[in-house]
Amino acid sequence: MSRLNRALLARLAERDGLRLPDYDTADVGTGVVHLGLGAFHRAHQAVYTEDGLRGEDWGICAYTQRSDAAARALAPQDGLYTVVERGAQSAPPRVVGVLREARCGVSDPVTAPERIADPAIRVVTLTVTERGYRLTPSRRLDVRDPLVARDAALFDAPGHRHRTVAGQLAAALHLRRVRGGAPLTVVPCDNVPGNGRVVRAVVDDFCALLPHGAALSEWIDGHVAFPSTVVDRIVPAATPADRRETARRIGADDLGTVVCEPYRQWVVEDSFAAPRPHWEDAGATLTDDVHPYEAVKLRMLNAAHSLVACTGALAGHPTIAAALDDPRIAEAARQLMACDAAPSLRAPHGLDLTVYQETVLDRFRNPALGHTTAQVATDGSVKIPIRLLGTVEDRLAAGAEPHWAALAVAAWMVLIGRGTDRQGRPLSVPDPLAGQLAGSGALLGNPAAFVGHFLAERAVFPAHLADDPVLRRLLITHVRDLLR
Fold first, then answer.
1. Chain centroid to CA 425: how far?
2. Any idea which architecture 291-483 has in CATH?
3. Prediction pTM value
4. Distance between CA atoms of 301 and 303, rounded to whole angstroms?
5. CA pair distance 32, 45, nearest whole angstrom
6. How far is 466 from 104, CA to CA, in rounded Å?
7. Is the per-residue pLDDT at 409 higher than 90?
8. What is the pLDDT of residue 442?
């Protein structure tokens, strides 16, 4: 079977039930650079951008950040790939053509800073995950990180390839400044509260490490915008079976196949320094204040996702949908949203939190996605503070006991500390703090000591929460129950 590419589009047009680009992809110039060429970007921002083209040059040049697998899969396909929705109300498969350049960040002859420096680029988007920003617990740049320090020390060195997001952005903005200073908008699309402000702070902290950083930071203030966003779409990793099914449906091999749910949401702060794609044409919400949307998504959907993933993995459920077939886990997720998260939230106008809660559970129950509990539970030490500890803190301040949020935190602790499900089967769930917390398993026979070991980790728990007796009691109780 032929590999998907531009020359094949005319033949694919003869197939029923397949949506193809309604424009000549070769005629679309590049106006967006994206950092983080993964499945989520291809199922989310790229689709919004294609649907908001209006015949303008908003093609995307996307760079991988670590592995070059996505670039190797997509470059021979002229950037084309198929988005396959799974579940009720799914649209037919569509071939997306807005990705004009698929590049490897660690080896491409044209580096990301060089590409961003091109005046034709007016927007930079990012999906590098919470971990990729290299943040401290206070959500500033970890300037002690070895790669951050190396990028700063070799900032102007000939041939140096910046490995960190902060280094790449600072280098790009430095080049843009010295080559004419065209305005630019940097749009982060990760589950980080106030992600626009965080990325601006990360760049500012990196500039502070440079001899000429103050002047660069001042120029950025006047020429670059960092709007915050909220993104939402469940995009599990595509499997070989997914790719075989896509080939059968479209009549071509597609190594870039993306599988996702029908639902999608994008809320963007309406603050831009330069022209942008017409994302609102594709259903994005442009608003002056993304915070209410962000808080609902993080404290309800993302928090419930972490609870279901961690408790589900411990119970031996391979997927999120299977975990929600367990009535205890489903009820815990519902109670987390209704009893802990909702009272801490100011809902956006027109959003019914009860309806939102049930929509979240319905989406999680979609068996066609095959979203694994291990995948969602990955990097829990980064996700727990963002998704759950704000709710914990607010409920404690209100004199309430955050029972269900504490359950989610305790489940993460047991997942990392024990490393097996209830049948004793090993669980492979990567976490950046696994090394620091490795000794916790020896404390499993003493839940109080076990919880204390985790609470001492300041990268996750601030001192005032670690010392709270109510939270400590809840965590010890939950850990004891989960171990049984």
1. 28
2. Orthogonal Bundle (1.10)
3. 0.89
4. 6
5. 11
6. 41
7. yes
8. 85
Query: Would you say the C-alpha torsion 328, 450, 433, 409 has a positive or negative sign?
Result: positive
**CA 482 – CA 414 distance, rounded (Å):** 7
Q: Which phi and psi angles does 31 have, rounded to 5°? A: -130, -5
Contact between residue 391 and residue 405 where contact means Cβ atoms under 8 Å apart: yes
Tokens standing for 392? 């914990």
Q: Sheet containing 258-260: give its strands across.
A: 94-96, 81-85, 258-260
Q: Which residues of 325-354 are buried (b: 16+ CB within 10 A; e: fewer)?
A: ebeebbebbbbbbebbbbebbeebeeeebe
DSSP letter, residue 429: -
How far is 339 from 337, CA to CA, in rounded Å?
6
In contact, 216 and 151? CB cutoff 8 Å: no
List all residues 6 or more positions away from 64 whose beta carbon is below 8 Å from its beta carbon: 36, 37, 70, 71, 103, 104, 105, 106
Local confidence band at 415 (pLDDT 50, 70, 90 cut-offs)? very high
**191, burial (CB in 10 Å: exposed 0-12, middle 13-18, buried 19+):** buried
From CA 149, how far away is CA 142, in angstroms rounded? 9
Task: Report helix, strand or coil for 351.
Answer: coil
The string of pLDDT tens digits covering residues 138-167 is 889 999 999 999 999 999 999 999 999 999
Report pLDDT digits (tens) over 348-362.
988 999 999 999 999
Task: Tell the residue number behind the tokens 């740049």, with chain if given.
Answer: 141
- Token pair listed for 374: 């291990």
Q: Across the beta sheet with 30-35, what order do the strands follow?
A: 99-104, 59-64, 30-35, 123-126, 184-188, 224-225
d(CA 198, CA 187): 11
Q: Which of 368, 284, 294 is nearest to 47 (CA)?
A: 284
Strand runs labelled E in 189-242 = 224-225, 229-232
CATH number of this structure's domain 6-287: 3.40.50.720
Beta bridge partners of 126: 35, 188
Element (H, E) at 47: helix 45-51
Pull the structure tokens for residue 72. Answer: 């190797």
Per the CB < 8 A criterion, the answer to whether 197 and 184 are in contact is no
Side-chain half-sphere of 91: how many Cα atoms within 13 Å? 15
Q: How many residues does the chain have?
A: 484
Can you give the residue ranges of every domain in the chain?
6-287, 291-483
DSSP H helical ranges for 122-164: 129-132, 146-153
Q: Which helix (H) or strand (E) holds 309?
A: helix 303-314
| pLDDT of res. 139 | 87
